[in-house]
């Protein structure tokens, strides 16, 4: 049975209060398309204003610490995100794995902390271009999943975002055949790790999703949604992707 699709935006380090009308417009479109789940991960400074601007709409963060509190200058705990109004958190994005040297073991601890605070964890995985060229894409991605995914994950607590690093922000995407192969491999890994719960965990595709390619990508088998960066910043770009996710 097809899972309900989740179209999540990742605003990265973009957006200020001036962008709240975009959140409101996206939330209004989401309410009008109740058959698709829609969410936006905003900079931490915008979690509360965005949640207040769009009551009931799923606002999230883009990282959290695994500890509840303590001497971690500049970090935010999962409880802090939840208190600010977040409903989910994006974890292990390649920009964090690369720029902040996050390991899968750390992503696992972050995901455990997030779920314990009632936040859905969107756990990002993906291979570099060199790894794909070397024929290691599936091995790299499935290892990241084995090491980053809490063993008690279900579809209610966790989603996976498969984002080939070379497709993020580049305008390049894998072929639909390559997406299908990777998502099938991820599904098999989830079933092996989680048993029947593995069938309920949504697998999002991310990396240069836009209005013009969304329908094709979102209807590949085992693509249960999308994680969208640049094309999530404006309602005019993002709403057509929500519409493309509909059956
Ligand atoms: P992009 O980013 O859609 O701009 O390629 C996706 C992501 O990094 O989540």
Q: What does the model show?
A:
The protein is globular. Strands 1-2-3-4-5-6-7-8 form an eight-stranded parallel barrel, surrounded by eight helices. It is built from ten helices and eight strands. By secondary structure, the chain is an alpha/beta fold. The model has no long low-confidence stretch (mean pLDDT 97). Bound molecules: 2-phosphoglycolic acid. 2-phosphoglycolic acid is lined by residues 10, 163, 168-169, 206-209, 227-231.
Query: What is the helix fraction of residues, given as a range?
Result: 40-55%
Sheet with most strands:
8 strands, parallel, barrel
Share in β-strands: 15-25%
Question: What is the CA-based Rg, rounded?
Answer: 17 Å
Contiguous low-pLDDT stretches (5 residues minimum) are none
Distance between the termini: 13 Å
Number of beta strands: 8
The average pLDDT value, as a whole number, equals 97
Order of helices and strands: EHEHEHEHHEHHEHEHEH
């Amino acid at each position: 049975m097809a899972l309900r699709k989740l179209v999540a935006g990742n605003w990265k380090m973009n957006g200020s209060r001036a962008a709240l009308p975009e959140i409101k417009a996206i939330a209004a479109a989401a309410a009008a398309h109740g058959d698709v789940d829609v969410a936006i991960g905003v900079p931490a400074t915008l979690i509360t204003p965005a949640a207040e601007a769009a009551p009931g709409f799923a606002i999230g963060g883009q990282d959290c610490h695994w500890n509840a509190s303590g001497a971690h200058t500049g970090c935010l705990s999962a409880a802090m995100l939840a208190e600010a109004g977040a409903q989910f958190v994006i974890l292990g994005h390649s920009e964090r794995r690369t720029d902040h040297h996050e390991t899968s073991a750390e992503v696992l601890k972050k995901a455990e902390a997030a779920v314990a605070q009632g936040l859905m964890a969107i756990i990002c995985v993906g291979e570099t271009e060199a790894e794909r060229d070397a024929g290691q894409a599936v091995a790299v991605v499935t290892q990241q999943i084995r090491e980053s995914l809490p063993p008690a994950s279900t579809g209610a607590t966790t989603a996976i975002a498969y984002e080939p690093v070379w497709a993020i922000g580049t305008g390049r995407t894998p072929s639909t055949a390559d997406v299908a192969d990777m998502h099938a491999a991820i599904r098999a890994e989830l079933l092996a790790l989680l048993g029947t719960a593995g069938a309920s965990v949504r697998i999002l595709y991310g990396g240069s999703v836009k209005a013009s390619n969304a329908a094709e990508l979102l209807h590949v088998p085992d693509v249960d949604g999308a994680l969208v960066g640049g094309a999530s910043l404006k309602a005019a770009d993002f709403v057509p992707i929500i519409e493309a996710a509909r059956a």
